[in-house]
Write a structure and sequence with these properties.
elongated; 77 residues; 2 strands; 31% helix; 17% strand; single chain; alpha+beta
Length: 77
């Protein structure tokens, strides 16, 4: 039985993660060189996001309301 993981974005499959072929497992390629090779061939697109953790809001005395759209676009840059 083959096992793999499907990565989705808005209910669309955007990637499939599966165990590498046996010839890949025995090669001298490092993960970084494999990613670089796949990126050059156009089969892999590296993420642009620098981090996935939002910075904590500063302490305010008033009720804090986070501007999600502003935070979203700031994180996407």
């Amino acid at each position: 039985m083959k096992r793999f993981i499907l990565v989705t974005d808005h209910s669309r499959i955007i990637a499939e993660i599966k165990k590498p072929a046996s010839d890949t497992l025995n090669s001298d390629l490092t993960v970084e060189s494999y990613i670089e090779k796949e990126q050059k061939s156009g089969l892999l697109l590296k993420a642009k996001r620098k981090s996935t953790v939002l910075k904590p809001p500063s302490k305010v005395k008033e009720k804090f309301q986070l501007d999600w759209m502003k935070t979203y676009y700031k994180d996407r840059d």
